[in-house]
Prior knowledge:
two-stranded parallel sheet, Nucleotidyltransferase, domain 5, 5-stranded mixed sheet
Amino acid sequence: xxxxxxxxxxxxxxxxxxxxxxxxxxxxxxxxxxxxxxxxxxxxxxxxxxxxxxxxxxxxxxxxxxxxxxxxxxxxxxxxxxxxxxxxxxxxxxxxxxxxxxxxxxxxxxxxxxxxxxxxxxxxxxxxxxxxxxxxxxxxxxxxxxxxxxxxxxxxxxxxxxxxxxxxxxxxxxx
Length: 175
């Protein structure tokens, strides 16, 4: 069955609070192809960025960036016509989206989430299911912890899982 138009989503956060998005990446997929992308740094609600060591984003990088509320019209427009969202570790990205929407008085989009982490665990035999490990296995380029690259990678993983494994008729193991 062909997938309808969907979007993949990835957030990077500044701190432990889920409303602290400091970057967002999206990729739109139609007929098994990435057809559009959207990426932005975001100014989080608090100046202190704890996770620079993970994603390299500093306050100086985001201080002049749009807030989630300011960026939301672009994001909402991008999501028009999308039937569902896909993310690697979807519970994390769903929690960030929910918290950012709630903190800004935005009605949460009524879109179901699909998790490529969960599906990778179901369909692949790998020692690790972290995004970089799944990408390496699937031959997908990745600039890990860059929200734009991570979103495109999640799209390509979902395409891989749908196309390669369903056409191949089963699980594929790496050893």
